[in-house]
Specification:
The complex is a heterodimer of chains A (154) and B (130).
Chain A lengths: L4 H25 L7 E3 L2 E3 L4 E7 L4 H8 L12 E8 L6 E4 L11 E4 L4 H32 L6
Antiparallel strand pairs in A: 1-2, 3-4, 5-6
Chain B lengths: L6 H24 L9 E3 L1 H9 L2 E2 L11 E2 L7 E3 L14 H33 L4
Antiparallel strand pairs in B: 1-4, 2-3
Classes of the chains: A alpha+beta (154), B mainly alpha (130).
Chain lengths: 154, 130
Amino acid sequence: MSIFHSMNTTASALTTQRLRMDVISSNIANVDTTRAKQVNGEWEPYRKKSVTLKEQEGQFSNFLNMAIGKTKKNGVGNGVKVSSIKEDTETPFKLMYDPSHPDANAEGYVQMSNVDVLKEMVDLISASRSYEANITAFNANKNMLTKALEIGKG
Amino acid sequence: MDLFGGTISSLEKGLSYATLKNKAITQNIANVDTPNYKTKEVSFKDVLNDAKQATIPAYRTDARHFDFKINIGSSGVYSNENFRSRANGNAVNMDAEQAKLAENTIYYNALIDRVSSKFSTLNNVVKGGR
């Protein structure tokens, strides 16, 4: 049990939220990308990527304590981790009429990426608020530790 | 007579409870966007019971043998399984967590304050009031 346990927890959350923001930035940046990946010799537009999060279950001691019956549930855990970054294959690509576009099909429609900028903005704000909340938790924890160092000084 | 009395060890138990609670709150805030995450809480009663009997009974071949002393781990932590506040099954209420965080910090600081003051009292005694 380390005194920096809480700080590591917060750090994992900060990393995760930053990664979410990176992925969202990438989505917004590629909103007009029509050639992201080649599938069977055809160019496919950019697919929206999303991050899935998972609770980090904690270290060996948690499971040991659970096994010897000291803890009923598994312990506090170790923060949060990214379980995967998935591409959105469900939402169809948007079709835009532009016959002059090099990627237009025979009817003159161009397939655009399936990124919805509005949704991305909402997610971006959510991620940045979560980041701020974790900063608050980090500062509170830091103050507690600093205060603990003052024991016996007064 | 014991110079330090029971005060410091009581305060120590309080501090370890506050530390554990801080861990749980941090974990809750960290997982605010994790689907199906359930809020973790610390039960004071469990932690106190644990602190009172923090030994594992050992197999004794002699009555004078000691029991094993164990550290206070993360016992007394339980998840709120039946509560959900959002569509993705996540149950973290950020306002409540922030309030608990602030409360816990103040509680911790108060205990630290008491420990310090206890030591300075003892220091005063040792110096004979000079």
